[in-house]
Every structure is written in C-alpha cells, then in structure tokens.
Design brief:
Keywords: DNA-binding. This is DNA-binding transcriptional regulator, PadR family. InterPro entries: Metal_resp_DNA-bind_regulator (IPR052509), Tscrpt_reg_PadR_N (IPR005149), WH-like_DNA-bd_sf (IPR036388), WH_DNA-bd_sf (IPR036390). This protein has one domain: Arc Repressor Mutant, subunit A (Orthogonal Bundle). Helix 1 crosses helix 4. It starts with 10 loop residues before the first helix and ends in a 5-residue tail after the last helix. It is elongated and about 65 Å long. It has four helices and three strands; from the N terminus they run αβααββα. The chain has a three-stranded antiparallel β-sheet with strand order 1-3-2. A hairpin with a 2-residue loop joins strand 2 and strand 3. The protein has about 110 residues and is an alpha+beta fold.
C-alpha cells in the first residue's frame, strides 16, 4: 500500500480528473470510486474530501446540484467549463512531474 502522504498534494487533481471522467458525482460515491480505482491504496476521508470540494467550488471549478434522494438531500458535484480546462492543465503538469521523477529515479544510460 502506498503512503497517504504521497497523495496529499494531488487531491484536487484526482477530483478534477475523476469528475471529468465520470460526470456528476456525490461525495460518498467519489470516495468509493477512488478506493475502487486505486485497489484500496487510496482512501479519501470526509475530512480531506469536503474541504477540497468546497475549495474547487469556491474557485469556480465545480458546480453543485442538490437533489432529494430517498428523502435526503444529496449534493452532486460536476465540473464547470473552467473546471474542465483546469483538469487538463493539472493533468499536463502531473504528467511532466512524473516524467521528471522517472528520469531522476531511472536515468537513461548513454
């Protein structure tokens, strides 16, 4: 299992990518999908998830829709147009970072 601290700075990128792929999702659904995709290596707690979602919403990257489901209100999150653009930018930055780390950890022999 990977160390949780390795994921700490990536939660916004993870959320943007996931919502870009899946469309609209609610909080618990997000935590379960991340757990599924990561084979249980990454468990996002409510204490980490909701502040990140609120920050992305405040930044205009997420739109919130509230619906009544089984007599309870449920908040669904989805990307705004700016959120979709930010997702592409964050993923590009992450790919460049991963390439740099790969080069540092496994340098090519000339």
């Amino acid at each position: 299992m990977a160390k949780p601290n390795l994921y700490k700075g990536s939660i916004h990128t993870i959320l943007l990518k996931l919502l870009g792929d899946e469309g609209r999702m609610y909080g618990y659904e997000i935590t379960q999908k991340v757990k599924e995709i990561s084979n249980g290596d990454l468990l996002i707690t409510e204490g980490a998830l909701y502040p990140a979602l609120h920050k992305l919403e405040a930044d205009g990257l997420l739109q919130v829709e509230v619906e009544k489901v089984d007599g309870r209100l449920r908040k669904y999150y989805k990307l705004t147009e700016d959120g979709a653009k930010e997702s592409v930018q964050k993923l590009s930055e992450l790919e460049a970072y991963l390439e740099t780390m790969q080069n540092l950890l496994q340098p090519k022999l000339i």
